[in-house]
Write a structure and sequence with these properties.
The complex is a heterodimer of chains A (about 350) and B (about 210).
Chain A: H1 11-22, E1 27-30, E2 35-38, E3 48-55, E4 66-67, E5 72-78, H2 84-94, E6 100-105, H3 108-123, E7 128-133, H4 153-166, H5 171-183, E8 185-191, E9 211-214, E10 225-228, H6 232-244, E11 249-257, E12 262-270, E13 278-285, H7 291-307, E14 311-318, E15 328-335, H8 338-345, E16 348-350, E17 354-355
Parallel strand pairs in A: 3-5, 3-6, 6-7, 13-14
Antiparallel strand pairs in A: 1-2, 2-5, 4-16, 8-9, 8-15, 9-10, 11-12, 13-15, 16-17
Helix pairs in contact in A: 2-3, 4-5, 4-8, 6-7
Chain B: E1 2-3, H1 4-20, H2 22-32, H3 37-51, H4 60-74, H5 77-93, E2 99-100, H6 102-120, H7 130-145, H8 150-167, H9 191-207
Helix pairs in contact in B: 1-3, 1-9, 2-3, 2-9, 3-4, 4-5, 5-6, 6-7, 7-8, 7-9, 8-9
C-alpha cells in the first residue's frame, strides 16, 4: 500500500485537522465526538441540515458544510458509519430551535445509527427527521436486499435541501423536499480498480487488467457483476440505459412521525424517466478517474439523452462522492421541476461546492 | 452461578480474542462487505478494555450497560449498533444482579438476541450474527430447563453457535452490505456470525 498517510488510525483526524486549517473562514471542527459544522452556526430561523457517513467519500460530506448546504457533517471512520453521539452533539450545536433534518444514505450501519440518534433526540425534545437516500439502481429490489444504496443523489439532495433551508422551509417542508429529490434521482456506477482501506492495507478486491465491476456502491465492495472492459462509450451507454430503462422502484421505508413519536412505514415509488423530462446529469469520479475521462463519459451520456428526448438542463461533473482512490465513474440523473431548479441554482459557499457568491 | 468477576474476565478475554482475530474477521468481511469488521470491533473492545478497571465496583447490569455505550460510541457501522444493542438489552435483563443463576444467563442471552433482531430487523437464515445467537440462545435455554448448569448448557450452546456460524456459508445475504453481491455472497462465512460465535466461545472458556 502506498498512501500519503502517517498512520492508518489517524487518517480521519489528521485529514479533518488539515481541513480546519484550510478553511477557517467556513468551518469549525469538534472532536470527541467528531463533527464538522458551519462556523456561523446555529443560523437563526433556519432548519439545520446534517448529513454523515463513513469517511473516504470526500468531499462528501465535510466538503459540503457551509452556506446553502449542510450545517454539520458527521464523519465516521473510513467506510464506517458515524455513531449516534456524533449526530446528537452535532444537532445540539447547529439547531437554532427549528429542528434538524438528517440526510441518511441507505446502508444498514448508517440507518441504525441515525435511527438511534433520532430516538434519543426525540426523547430530549429535539425535533429530528431522517430522510433516506436510496437511489442506486444497480440494486433491483428491496425484498431480498437492504434496498437500494444511497449514492450520487445524496450530493444533489444536500445542495437542493440546503438551499431550501436557507429560504426558510420548515422541518416538515424540508423533509418533503428531500424525499422528493430522492424519489426523482437514480444512479449507477462501475469500477476499474478496487480501493485500499488504510487500516486493511491491501485492495478490497482484485480486478484483472481486462475486467470491470459493474453496479458498485461507494465502499469498495464488489459490484453485482464482473465483466470484460469495454470502450468508454460502451460503458457510458450501459450506465445510461441502466438508469433510463429502470422500471418504477417501489419500497417500504421507515420514518419517525414527530407527532406520535412512532416509526411509521411509508410505501414510496421512484417513477421511471420518460421522453420530455428535464434532468440534472451528474457524472462523478470514484476518486481515481480524471476529469478528461468523465467528459468522455458525459459526451456519450448527453448524446443518448438527446436521442431519447431527455433534456439535460443542469450538470455537475467531477469527484464529489468518492471511494478513496478507486478508478471508476458513476452517473446520476435527477428529474428536475421548477422548485428544484431554483434551489439548485441558489448560492452555495462550501469548501468543495461554490457558486453564486 | 456466574460471578461478576467472571463477566469482567469474559469481556477482557473477548477483547484479546478480537485483537487476535482482527485480520481474520476483516478478511471475511472483505469477501462480502467492506473489509472493516475486525478493525471496527477491535477499536471498540480496546476501548472497553481500558474501561474495565473502572467498572469493578459496579453490578453486572451496569457493567454491561457501560460496555454497550462504549461500543455504540466507538465502533460505528452496523456492528456498533448491533453489539451495542445486544449489551444494552442484556443489561436490562439482569438489573441489580452481581451474580447470575443459569436462568438469569438464559434471560440475558434471550433479551440481547431480541434487541439485535429488532435493531437489525433481521431473521434467521439471512446470513447475520443472528444465525449464531439465535440457535445458541435457544439451545442454552432448553439445556437449562432440562436441569443443566450454566457451563454444561453453554457447551451445548457453543456447539449450536458454531453450527449456525458455519450454516451462513451457503446462504445468500439478506441484510447489510453483503446483500449487494447477490448470489456472489454464497460460499462465504458471515463475519458478524463469526464474531458472535467467538463471543460465546470465550464465555465458555472463561467459565471453565
Amino acid at each position: 500500500m502506498k498512501k500519503l498517510i502517517n498512520s492508518p488510525e489517524n487518517v480521519v483526524r489528521e485529514s479533518l485537522e488539515g481541513m480546519a486549517l484550510a478553511h477557517p473562514d467556513l468551518i469549525k471542527i469538534n472532536f470527541d465526538p467528531t463533527f464538522v459544522y458551519r462556523k456561523d452556526a446555529p443560523i437563526q430561523n433556519k432548519v439545520a441540515l446534517i448529513s454523515g457517513g463513513g469517511s473516504g467519500h470526500e468531499p462528501m460530506h465535510t466538503g459540503f458544510v457551509g452556506m446553502g448546504m449542510l450545517d454539520a457533517a458527521c464523519p465516521g471512520e473510513i467506510f464506517t458509519s458515524p455513531t449516534p453521539d456524533q449526530m446528537l452533539e452535532a444537532a445540539k450545536k447547529v439547531n437554532s430551535g427549528n429542528g434538524v433534518l438528517n440526510i441518511v444514505k441507505n446502508y444498514s450501519g448508517d440507518v441504525m445509527n441515525f435511527e438511534m440518534a433520532a430516538e434519543i433526540a426525540s426523547s430530549e425534545n429535539l425535533p429530528m427527521i431522517n430522510i433516506l437516500i436510496d437511489d442506486d439502481c444497480a440494486v433491483k429490489d428491496s425484498l431480498y436486499t437492504q434496498g437500494r444504496r444511497g449514492v450520487g443523489t445524496t450530493v444533489l439532495a444536500e445542495k437542493i435541501c440546503g438551499a431550501g433551508a436557507e429560504k426558510g422551509y420548515n422541518l416538515q417542508q424540508l423533509a418533503n423536499l428531500c424525499r422528493k429529490v430522492n424519489l426523482n434521482g437514480r444512479s449507477i456506477g462501475i469500477a476499474l480498480t478496487s480501493c485500499t482501506v488504510p487500516a486493511k492495507g491491501s485492495p478490497t478486491f482484485e480486478l484483472a487488467d481486462n475486467e470491470i465491476e459493474f453496479g458498485i456502491g461507494i465502499h469498495g465492495e464488489p459490484g453485482r457483476q464482473r465483466m470484460e472492459i469495454k470502450t468508454a462509450d460502451q460503458i457510458s451507454e450501459m450506465l445510461t440505459f441502466s438508469i433510463l430503462e429502470d422500471p418504477p422502484y417501489i419500497r417500504t421505508i421507515r420514518e419517525l412521525n414527530l407527532e406520535s413519536q412512532e416509526w411509521e412505514e411509508l410505501e414510496l415509488t421512484t417513477p421511471p424517466f420518460q421522453s420530455g423530462d428535464s434532468v440534472l446529469a451528474f457524472v462523478n469520479s470514484m476518486g481515481g478517474t480524471p476529469l478528461s475521462e468523465l467528459y468522455i463519459i458525459y459526451r456519450q451520456l448527453a448524446q443518448i439523452c438527446e436521442k431519447k428526448n431527455i433534456t439535460i438542463i443542469r450538470n455537475l461533473i467531477g469527484p464529489y462522492i468518492t471511494s478513496l482512490e478507486m478508478q471508476g465513474v458513476s452517473i446520476t440523473l435527477l428529474k428536475l421541476d421548477e422548485e428544484m431548479i431554483k434551489l439548485w441554482d441558489a448560492p452555495v459557499k462550501t469548501a468543495s461546492l461554490r457558486w453564486g457568491v | 452461578m456466574t460471578t461478576k468477576q467472571q463477566i469482567l474476565q469474559w469481556l477482557q478475554t473477548y477483547a484479546t480474542v478480537i485483537e487476535q482475530n482482527k485480520d481474520y474477521l476483516t478478511e471475511l468481511d472483505a469477501a462480502i462487505g467492506d473489509a472493516d469488521h475486525g478493525i471496527n470491533m477491535n477499536r471498540g473492545f480496546q476501548k472497553v478494555l481500558t474501561q474495565l478497571p473502572t467498572l469493578a465496583e459496579k453490578d453486572i447490569s451496569n457493567i454491561l450497560k457501560a460496555v454497550s455505550m462504549t461500543l455504540i460510541s466507538s465502533v460505528g457501522g452496523a456492528s456498533g449498533a448491533l453489539y451495542g444493542t445486544f449489551f444494552l438489552r442484556a443489561s436490562n435483563a439482569v438489573t441489580g444482579l452481581s451474580e447470575l443463576t443459569p436462568e438469569d444467563t438464559a434471560k440475558l442471552l434471550e433479551t440481547g438476541l431480541s434487541g439485535v433482531r429488532e435493531r437489525g430487523k433481521a431473521n434467521l437464515g439471512e446470513k447475520t450474527m443472528l444465525d449464531t445467537l439465535q440457535p445458541a440462545s435457544q439451545t442454552f435455554t432448553k439445556a437449562i430447563s432440562e436441569g443443566n448448569n450454566t457451563l454444561e448448557a453453554l457447551k451445548e450452546a457453543v456447539i449450536a453457535a458454531e453450527q449456525g456460524m458455519k450454516n451462513t456459508i451457503p446462504l445468500i445475504a439478506k441484510k447489510g452490505r453483503a446483500t449487494y453481491l447477490g448470489e456472489r455472497s454464497i460460499g462465504h462465512q458471515d463475519p458478524g456470525a463469526t464474531s458472535a460465535y467467538l463471543m460465546l466461545k470465550t464465555l465458555q472458556q472463561v467459565l471453565q
